[in-house]
């Protein structure tokens, strides 16, 4: 289970740009109108690339075990999809309801203000299976109906998931081979990124189907600013210890909904905190991989 402490910045709800009433009934395709004035670029991610055109945009995923690069085309509603691109999925934007298959995607969805459009696509092997979904905030959202949850019928299993009955337009899945009959599966491999800055930049990717690039850029800039501040404090931290940093011992861990405990990793694979990079730079001794506490 990949669950990262990514977002500590609280932002107020932004204007709803996903209202279908804002769709064009007639699309201007002569090049005189740019339907995507707010654009996102991936400057830190090694997995994602982006191209913009006046009436559609294209993302490319270069990390993973599936069809690489995975190409997703996002077409402004009312406009014509390009016929020259071999797309894995074509999404009309701004999109409506969508599914997710991993709890590690919830922070991105939350800070983009999209919880009311999210459907929890639950299956037996998924990290969203009810008995591992322990966060009270999201439990309350499910129980109150703010967050929708698929209705299970029969015994859940790897191959039995069919999202066509859930009314979702696409599904963010966790980066392995899509499980079941998913509507327009979109692969998410943020966990393959080299550092937390790159992982955080994936909020821009989650924003693409909803034309929320402006909001995503602002959120990312604020979070990265906090990361940069922590990095700038390295000298202050270092001045507290005049001895060999290797004499220091630290333990890094992240809480896992799946394991229901703290997962300890010496190499900071879990990207538990922005201080992982600091500790690595200082060369401190880290507690070994001891599993779940």
From TrEMBL:
<feature type="signal peptide">
    <location>
        <begin position="1"/>
        <end position="15"/>
    </location>
</feature>
<keyword id="KW-0732">Signal</keyword>
<protein>
    <submittedName>
        <fullName>Uncharacterized protein</fullName>
    </submittedName>
</protein>
């Amino acid at each position: 289970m990949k669950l990262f402490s990514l977002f500590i910045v609280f932002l107020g709800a932004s204007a709803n740009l996903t209202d279908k009433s804002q769709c064009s009934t007639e699309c201007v395709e002569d090049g005189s109108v740019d339907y995507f004035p707010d654009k996102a670029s991936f400057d830190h991610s090694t997995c994602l690339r982006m191209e913009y055109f006046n009436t559609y945009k294209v993302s490319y995923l270069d990390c993973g075990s599936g069809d690489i690069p995975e190409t997703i085309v996002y077409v402004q509603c009312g406009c014509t999809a390009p016929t020259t691109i071999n797309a894995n999925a074509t999404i009309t934007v701004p999109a409506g309801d969508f599914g997710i298959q991993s709890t590690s995607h919830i922070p991105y969805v939350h800070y983009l203000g999209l919880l009311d459009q999210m459907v929890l696509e639950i299956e037996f092997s998924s990290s969203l299976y009810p008995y591992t979904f322990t966060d009270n905030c999201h439990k309350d959202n499910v129980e109150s109906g703010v967050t929708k949850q698929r209705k299970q019928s029969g015994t859940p299993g790897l191959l039995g998931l069919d999202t066509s009955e859930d009314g979702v337009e696409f599904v963010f899945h966790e980066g392995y081979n899509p499980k079941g009959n998913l509507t327009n599966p979109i692969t998410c491999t943020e966990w393959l990124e080299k550092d937390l800055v790159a992982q955080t930049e994936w909020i821009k990717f989650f924003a693409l189907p909803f034309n929320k690039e402006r909001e995503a850029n602002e959120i990312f800039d604020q979070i990265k600013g906090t990361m940069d501040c922590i990095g700038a404090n390295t000298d202050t931290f270092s001045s507290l210890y005049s001895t060999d940093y290797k004499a220091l011992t630290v333990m890094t861990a992240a809480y896992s909904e799946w394991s229901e405990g703290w997962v300890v990793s010496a190499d900071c694979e879990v990207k538990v905190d922005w201080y992982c990079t600091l500790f690595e730079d200082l060369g401190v001794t880290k507690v070994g991989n001891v599993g779940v506490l």
